[in-house]
Specification:
seven-stranded parallel beta sheet; two-stranded parallel ribbon; 9 strands; 2 domains; globular; Rossmann fold; alpha/beta
Length: 285
């Protein structure tokens, strides 16, 4: 029997896609979530469900027992990673986790203020085996965070201007993560994962229009207008400001990098934006 692989954030975008990928390969998967009762309805009984919360040390032992390889993802609500994540990372290493595959952020080596950079540094200092997946913006953000405005108002409302983004499908990220977790040769690597094209949101809106058969418009709001809308929608102020800052970086051209790491590692082209929209079209109808 293959060793158990622990996936944190198993009910999230990337974690969920990874659990499906590993289970399809017949791997022994332990899926961790603060809401473990959600796991079986999503993945079935072939996946081991466990309660796991970075901020609750009582959940560590059951999550890490017998695990040598772990997929590590930062919950978006955690900003103080030193206080709220490092104890869990230390406990995982002490329990025998030897290889961490960490979901990081593209350009993290130049933007050292983000929590992802501090996590990368911590793992490096610990001397464990690591694979850093430095990813561009997820296509799935259009089907989660931006879903309601596309579905209900036929608009995209983010402050990016003409800035381009090399969007990546989380299914491609999951495929690379599964490779790093199950095959040798990926320890010590940092992969920069993007799609094969960089698009601005006007182009994304045009693709949505073509596939959905109704006009979708990119509004191009100001950063202030965006933050105010997010606050009115009930987002925490810190979250609204952080996302506005990330979109500002995109406006300034920091998200348009295109790499061939997905093609090189998987032996195929990344999922295109058009294919993604076609696959998820029902979510916006």
């Amino acid at each position: 029997m293959s060793p158990v692989i622990f996936v944190s954030g198993a009910t999230g975008n990337v974690g969920g896609a990874l659990v499906h990928e590993l289970a399809a390969q017949g791997r022994a998967v332990r899926a961790g979530s603060p809401d473990p009762e959600r796991i079986e309805p999503i993945f079935g009984r072939a996946v081991e469900a466990v309660g796991f919360d970075f901020t609750d040390p009582a959940t560590y032992a059951a999550a890490f027992e017998g695990v040598e390889r772990m997929f590590l993802v930062r919950p978006p609500q955690i900003g103080n990673v030193e206080r709220d994540m490092f104890p869990a990372i230390d406990a995982a290493a002490a329990a025998g986790v030897k290889h961490f595959v960490f979901l990081s952020l593209i350009g993290v080596e130049q933007v050292k203020r983000v929590p992802h950079y501090r996590i990368e540094q911590r793992l490096t200092e610990m001397g464990v085996q690591t694979t850093f997946l430095r990813c561009s913006f997820f296509m799935q953000n259009l089907a989660t965070a931006l879903r309601a405005e596309i579905r209900d108002r036929s608009e995209i409302y983010v402050p990016v201007g003409r800035g381009k983004t090399s969007f990546i499908d989380v299914r491609d990220i999951a495929a690379v993560a599964a490779l790093a977790l199950t095959k040798d040769g990926h320890a010590g690597q940092a992969y920069h994962l993007t799609g094969a094209e960089a698009l601005d949101y006007y182009e994304v809106a045009d693709l949505l229009t073509e596939v959905l058969g109704r006009r979708v418009v990119y509004r191009n709001p100001s950063a202030l207008g965006y933050v105010l809308r997010r606050l009115r929608a009930g987002d925490p102020p810190a979250f609204a400001l952080v996302t506005a800052w990330l979109y500002h970086n995109t406006r300034e051209g920091m998200a348009d990098i295109i790499t061939n790491d997905v093609q090189r590692l998987l032996g195929r082209e990344p999922v295109s934006m058009r294919q993604f929209i076609e696959d998820y079209a029902a979510l916006w109808k």
